[in-house]
Amino acid sequence: MATKPRYLPAKINITYTEGDTGDLVFHFTDIVDLTSKDVRVQVRDEDYGILITKDSGDSVPSITIENWYEEEEDSDFDPDDSNNTWLGYTVTVLMESDDTKGHDSLTNIWEMEMYDADEINTLVNGKFVIIKEIVEHE
Length: 138
Fold this sequence. Notes:
This protein has 138 residues and is mainly β. It has a single domain, classed as Immunoglobulin-like (Sandwich). The protein is 0% helix and 46% strand. The chain has no helices and 9 strands. The protein has strands at residues 10-11, 14-17, 24-29, 38-44, 50-55, 63-70, 85-93, 106-115, 120-131. Strand 8 and strand 9 form a beta hairpin. The termini are far apart. The model has no long low-confidence stretch (mean pLDDT 86).
């Protein structure tokens, strides 16, 4: 019987400004197999209440999973070229302004996991600090 690989989650602390819309982008090498898997991210407050939930398995995905290739700097990159060197996956967490509004100056915890019908594995976790927006917008 083959054993399933065990992943030791990386610890990454994120500092994010309240109301920003910059997406969170992660690269996973080919050691992590995301074939036929979905990815979920949750941010929870100090009372373990959910602040943010993102999921690639939602009907309107808030996380994208794409192949990650080595790109040659001096050529036009074609993702369909069979000569490309595949490095792994790019996971992009699509952030919206409302995701962090009203949660300023708190240190929270976050976790990213991959899952399918048979297994759940944590890929990354750590602290998620939301800092108060300094520039005011009307």
